[in-house]
């Protein structure tokens, strides 16, 4: 049996479908990514669709919650 990650703080509100979708997107957004340019782990989202590396200042446009290169 695989244990699923759950997101605390929503309680019993909004319905199970919306809570599962929100937690899936939240964990996808917060996962660690490597920079395609320098390989460091400091590759984060600046705004919706804008991803940048804090180490080498590499910027790329991607999707809202994940970067597809």
Overall morphology:
elongated
Q: Proportion of β residues?
A: 15-25%
The CATH architecture of the domain at 16-61 comes to: Single Sheet
Give the helix proportion (percent range): 10-25%
CATH topology heading of the domain at 16-61: N-terminal domain of TfIIb
- Low-confidence spans: none
Give the number of DSSP strands.
3
Q: What is the strand arrangement across the widest sheet?
A: 1-2-3
What is the gyration radius calculated from CA atoms?
15 Å
Mean of residue pLDDT values: 85
Largest sheet: 3 strands, antiparallel
Helix count? 1
N-C termini distance: 33 Å
Order of helices and strands: HEEE
CATH class of the domain at 16-61 reads Mainly Beta
Task: Kindly name the structural category.
Answer: alpha+beta
In a few lines, what is going on in this structure?
By secondary structure, the chain is α+β, with helices and mostly antiparallel strands. This is 50S ribosomal protein L37Ae. It holds the Pfam family Ribosomal_L37ae.
Topology diagram in text:
Blueprint: H1 16-30, E1 43-47, E2 50-53, E3 59-61
Antiparallel strand pairs: 1-2, 2-3
Main attributes of the structure:
69 residues, alpha+beta, N-terminal domain of TfIIb, three-stranded antiparallel sheet, 1 helix, ribosomal protein, Ribosomal_zn-bd
Question: Can you walk through the features of this model?
Answer:
The chain has a 3-stranded antiparallel β-sheet with strand order 1-2-3, with no helix packed on it. It has 1 helix and 3 strands. It has a domain at 16-61: N-terminal domain of TfIIb, CATH 2.20.25. It has one helix at residues 16-30; strands at residues 43-47, 50-53, 59-61. The protein is of the alpha+beta class and 69 residues long. The protein is elongated. The mean pLDDT is 85.
């Amino acid at each position: 049996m695989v244990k699923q990650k759950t997101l605390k703080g929503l309680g019993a509100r909004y319905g199970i479908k919306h809570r599962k979708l929100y937690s899936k997107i939240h964990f996808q957004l917060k996962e660690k990514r490597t920079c395609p340019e320098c390989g460091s782990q400091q590759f984060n989202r600046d705004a919706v669709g804008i991803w940048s590396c804090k180490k080498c200042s590499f910027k790329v446009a991607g999707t809202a919650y994940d970067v597809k290169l």
